[in-house]
Amino acid sequence: MVLVCFVLDLRNISPYLIGDLKQSFLNLANLHAVSSPVDSLADRIGLCYIQKDRISGNDQLKFAYTPSGNFCLRDFHHAVNSLPTDAFVPEIDESGAVSCGDLKISSVLCDRAMYSWGGRDIMRKVIVLSSCFPEDMDSEARNTLMAAADKCVSVEFLLLDEKASHLSYTQEKTNRFLRCLSDLDNCSFQTCIPDGKSLRGLENKWLQDLKDDSGESLQAQFIFKRNLVGSVNKIFCNLSAATNQIVDGFKPCQTCRCHGIPVRDSVEITTEKMQCSVTNHDLGMHDVIDSSVKVGERTVLFLPSIDSLQKLHPISSQIDFTVIERTNLTSINEGIIIGRPYIVSPSTCHEAEDSSEEMDQPDLNTQIFQGLCGALYSMDQGLVCSSDCNLDTRQVVEFHCYYILQPSENGPMLLRRLAGSEEVLPISSSVSQFAGSSIPREVEISVKGALLEIESTDYNPMTHNRGFHQKLNLIVKESLQFGSLHPNLDDATCEVSSVVSMAQTCIINPPIEEEETRQEIQITDEEDKATASITKEWEQLVVTEVRMKSPSPVLTTPKPNTNRPFLSPNNKQADMKTSMILERLEAPRKMRGKVGSPSIVVTSSQTSPDVSVLSQKKPLIPFQTSQVSNHQTASSSQLMKPSFQRLKRKHK
User: Fold this and answer.
1) Of 61, 190, 423, 446, which shows the fewest CB atoms inside 10 Å?
2) Do residues 237 and 250 lie in contact, with contact meaning Cβ atoms separated by under 8 Å?
3) How far apart are the first and last CA of the chain?
4) How far apart are the C-alpha atoms of 178 and 171, rounded to whole Å?
5) pLDDT tens readout for residues 279-298
6) CA dist., res. 67 & res. 142, Å (int)
7) Which of 142, 67, 64 is nearest to 103 (CA)?
8) Over the stretch 341-359, which tens digit does the pLDDT of each residue have?
């Protein structure tokens, strides 16, 4: 992340070149607005210019745009468009060549300007653009540049070499200026022929300086199985993106009049009223500006009307590709191919309103497709097409999308998207330095020998497994060892209810006459929480058999224990916790001792103080005699019905 300040020497830049530079600055601001991170759009662009006062004849430095807070695209456009175009007043020396005066560097690199912009930790860079530079540098300018080096401020001098101009800037003057910068490490010099291609490259280079790519810079190493040179078997590299995809259109939005930022819509706040994003106050109809457009994520512009904006919508019909030109496949740089590739094959059914009678023949379309594919393959060329559809997002967009149609020998063709001029990023300076470098002969021979030892095959994707299925199968296998869990509470409740109904069939209820004379014992636990799990609910609700003394015994005959397959220890579907619950649902062990032997249940009256427990299991909930009312007795063979709600004490 760099704060960049542009200094234009309008005294020596021709008016037609000023127009091209203006457009470059506007393009840079536009890309900066849509390419910045979502959370912030810091203002990191400064613009100033040097002109000669027509009255006094003195050189003046004026600031057109100073960075402060968040970047304002509208204000920057206004500052660029307001640059004077009549300040071209070159100075001619005795030899007839153009000369340059003071560059006002000390007025830019000072506490009142450059050093007061941005924070303390931000890097700063000054770019001086002019058609000529002074042959010598005075002591004040030199001291200023040396002080800038101590503050980590870099200065770049960009010479706009206008070959078509009748004014010439000799190479000798350039060499003299370079000698002045030779001992300054923070200064650099570059020559540029200001044509369309060079200016577009400068835009992308400046954008890289403005872009906060601290989290995107990657370092990598490529490891070989054999040594390349000596004992070295790896190379270290830097990874940088080749393209930067831009937005497909601009979205209309609603903004509040109080702050001028997009409002919170009803979908976001789940209410029918709109709210201010800053104060969260409800907004009325007159408190909202409807004619606003969102550029990127952090820039909002106000328009008189948004009727001219094209709304993005999904593709609803066939996609139209317009063929623009033929291109050699060897000229296509793989770095500018973006998006997902698509296989193109001839369609057997094609219905179009404007199709001719010849196209109605079923085989003609396939024959034309095969002929086109074969002709392009023989010429080693492809077709560049344009469309208003983005195949990656499946939407009709506002900007053009470019594609390359690549042929094959005897098969389908391949459609791939190409980056536009706004999306291509410049090659890093570390890459361009390899052009004139040479390597020792012994290194070249050693590396080539190591490459010949690597197996050479045609790439087959079927033999390069990423390991997806193996890893997922292992995870599922480990999950099966954990046991089965119910996906939701409703399914678990239904399954537990079925277990209760099955368990109740294994217990013989007492005669109806006795049920009418007895009442259930209601045991409540006030400390029980509603958020307890189903297993704990079962453990608290399943009550063991309680037998009480009574002067009139009642005989019950248990049913033979033959229809309980779910209680078998060989059932592998029930886990340990479920087995414990099902075991508590069994009939008392004494009742299962002998088939047909009667069991005596003794009920006590109000005057009987003794209560004996004949069950072999301890109750899960402590039994208290004080909870038995005058009309409540214990049942030896009927379980309490499960209820998964919080138990409440009944007050009579």
Assistant:
1) 190
2) no
3) 77
4) 11
5) 877 777 777 888 788 887 77
6) 26
7) 142
8) 999 999 876 555 555 566 6
Closest of 525, 551, 524, 516 to residue 635, by C-alpha = 516
Dihedral, CA of residue 522, residue 525, residue 531 and residue 536, to nearest 10: -80
Q: Sign of torsion, CA 15 16 18 19?
A: positive
Backbone angles phi, psi at 607, to 5 degrees: -90, -5
Give the long-range contacts of residues 168-174, CB within 8 A, separation 24 or more: 168/96, 168/97, 168/98, 169/97, 169/98, 169/131, 169/132, 170/95, 170/97, 173/97, 173/132, 173/133, 173/135, 174/133
Residue 538: in which H helix or E strand, if any? helix 534-541
Question: Rounded to whole angstroms, how far apart are CA atoms 410 and 39?
Answer: 50
Contact 248, 268 (CB under 8 A): no
pTM, two decimal places: 0.65
Question: Cβ contacts of residue 633 below 8 Å, gap of 6+?
Answer: 518, 519, 521, 548, 603, 604
Give residues with Cβ within 8 angstroms of 91, minimum separation 6: 11, 98, 99, 100, 101
Cβ atoms of residues 120 and 154 within 8 Å: no
Q: Which candidate, 308, 302, 270, places its Cα nearest to that of 288?
A: 302
Amino acid identity at 380: D
- Report the alpha-carbon distance of residue 254 to residue 261 in Å, rounded: 8
Residues 6+ away with beta carbon under 8 Å from 570: none
Q: Is 144 helix (H, G, I), strand (E, B) or coil?
A: helix
277 neighbors 259 (Cβ within 8 angstroms)? yes
Q: Could you give the maximum distance between any two Cα atoms of the chain, in Å?
A: 139
Q: How far apart are CA 586 and CA 581, in angstroms?
A: 9
HEC profile of 409-435: CCCCEEEEEECCCCCECCCCHHHHCCC
Average pLDDT over residues 155-171: 73
Q: 249 φ, ψ to 5°?
A: 175, 180
CB 68 within 8 A of CB 139: no
pLDDT digits (tens, 9 = 90+) for 231-272: 999 999 888 888 888 888 887 888 888 877 788 654 444 456
Question: CA–CA distance from 556 to each of 200, 510, 544 (Å)?
Answer: 99, 7, 17
Q: Which two tokens stand for residue 109?
A: 């690199």
Q: How many separate helices (H) and strands (E) can be counted in the chain?
A: 15, 23
CB 43 within 8 A of CB 29: no
User: DSSP string of 5-18?
Assistant: EEEEETTSS-HHHH
Unique residue bearing structure tokens 């990127």: 296
Helix axes 73-81, 15-35, angle to 10 degrees: 180
C-beta of residue 407 within 8 angstroms of C-beta of residue 373 = yes
Domains of the chain: 2-210 (3.40.50.410), 251-302 (no CATH), 313-418 (no CATH), 493-627 (no CATH)
Query: d(Cα 102, Cα 134) in Å, to the nearest integer?
Result: 8
